[in-house]
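This protein record is not my work; I was only asked to verify it. The record follows directly below this note.
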Amino acid sequence: MMQYLFILLIILIAVILTAKDFKRYVSELEIRYHLADLYNRTNNFQAEVDEYRIILTINPDDINANYRIGHF
């Protein structure tokens, strides 16, 4: 059941990222971190690393994203 909820959240976050003015209301970095966490919880590790790479395109000095990519 929990896996199903995580998948629904991943889909919802993906929809939010395509919304026109989502950045006015929420930080893209926050969304990306939540998405990476959800990918981790669903054992989709490649997608998690991809999210951290996107985070690094937004903020190349992000220590956590650099650590997480080096961690894998």
Notes: DSSP finds four helices and no strands in the chain. The mean pLDDT is 86.
